[in-house]
Specification:
Length: 127
């Protein structure tokens, strides 16, 4: 009679491809939110601040209340389902003031879709 070895326990075998897949999923869904609304590095902190407070699906009223609570000026918008704000912020790295013109876009039910930032300048905007 021949002694047969038990079959290998495959449940504990290390699968490098599974580890790679998990790393890709974590990278894709975590920690890569900031900086998606502007390509201007000077506006990164403003983008991060807005991104942390105003998520897609937020109501138009919620966005307006947030803007008012922070003391940001709401400018006239000529387009329906948009809100335009002038956002001022002091960059904590450079201690330089930055000003952005932020356009918030809403769907037909006034739920936030996205927003975009551009540098704002001019004598009326610099305080």
């Amino acid at each position: 009679m021949k002694d047969s070895a038990p079959p290998p326990d495959r449940s504990r075998k290390f699968h490098p491809s599974l580890l790679l897949f998990a790393a890709l999923v974590i990278f894709a869904f975590g920690g890569c939110r900031h900086g998606k609304h502007t390509s201007n590095p000077r506006l990164r902190q403003i983008d991060d601040m807005l991104d942390a407070q105003l998520h897609p699906g937020a109501t138009k009223a919620r966005v307006i209340v947030y803007l008012h609570s922070q003391g940001f000026e709401i400018a006239d918008s000529m387009e329906p389902h948009t809100v335009v704000a002038i956002v001022r912020h002091v960059d904590t790295g450079t201690l330089q003031p930055e000003t952005a013109r932020v356009t918030f876009h809403f769907d037909k039910n006034d739920k936030l879709l996205t927003y975009e930032l551009v540098p704002a300048s001019g004598p009326l905007l610099q305080r």
